[in-house]
Amino acid sequence: MKKIVSLAILVGLTAPAVAAPSYLTRTGDGGYRVTYNYTDKAKTGWYVGGRAELGFWNWKNKYDTSDNFQGDKEYGTDDFSFEPVFGGSLFGGTRFAYFWRAELELGYLGYFEDADVMAQYSLQIPYAMANLYYDFTNGLYVGAGVGAAMPIEKIDLIGYADGTDRTEYGFAPMAGIMLGYSYELDENLVLDLRYRLSGMTGYHHRVDDLVTEDNDLVWFENEVDFILDNSISIGIRYEF
Fold first, then answer.
1. How many CB atoms are located within 10 Å of the residue 218 CB?
2. Which residues form the signal peptide (predicted)?
3. Are strands 119-135 and 152-157 parallel, antiparallel or unpaired?
């Protein structure tokens, strides 16, 4: 009986953690032993996948115009807070040193539009990021990434003809930190849940040669502050 109990304790101590990779087993001294079965040997460490994302944007627009086109100062700014948008991304990466992953992500943060009696405004943000993740044995992971966002802003002033550069194609450095959870569905498919806090620098957009009802030429510009994005996503990774 004592031998059976001892064997059960030994098995319990050497069994892998619930969410640990199948090639890692815990040793009695708290370390890890690397073992492989035939399915593990077939894996290359590379993976691809995709995510669907719900984001919440926060930023401020600051407006300015020609001296002969000045409006009410209280309408000189717009504050946007936790505006919901839907986006997604495609990614590919590789695992190295057992717990680390390097990843390239190409995505679309989403599309936002707003309108009033004077103007129609829209903003959409494609992006590219290089990410580095650390995977814990319980399925949780943390990460950080750097890259660039390519915001596309469009401003249409209602009732004013002509005008140049109503659409602005910007470029903004971008960075983020991530917290997530991975769950193995089978030998190759992994469910990926992720929260990301990311931000990007602002940009400047100016529309020249607007024609008023009196045939005056005026300009209008928008200075976009730092954009902060909180996003949650669900995705699938396929591991080769």
1. 20
2. 1-19
3. antiparallel
If you ran DSSP here, which 8-state letter would residue 73 be given? G
Distance in angstroms (rounded) separating the CA atoms of residues 202 and 225: 5
| pLDDT tens by residue, 165-203 | 689 999 999 999 999 999 999 999 999 999 999 999 999
- Token pair 């948008």 is found at 85
pTM of the model: 0.78
Q: Which domains does the chain have, with CATH numbers?
A: 1-42 (no CATH), 44-239 (2.40.160.20)
CB-based contacts of 34, cutoff 8 Å, min separation 6:
23, 24, 98
Which H or E element spans position 147? Answer: strand 140-149
Provide CB contacts within 8 A for 202, sequence distance 6+.
59, 172, 223, 224, 225, 226, 227
Name the residue among 67, 87, 65 with its Cα closest to residue 76.
65
Answer yes or no: are the C-beta atoms of 57 and 21 closer than 8 Å.
no
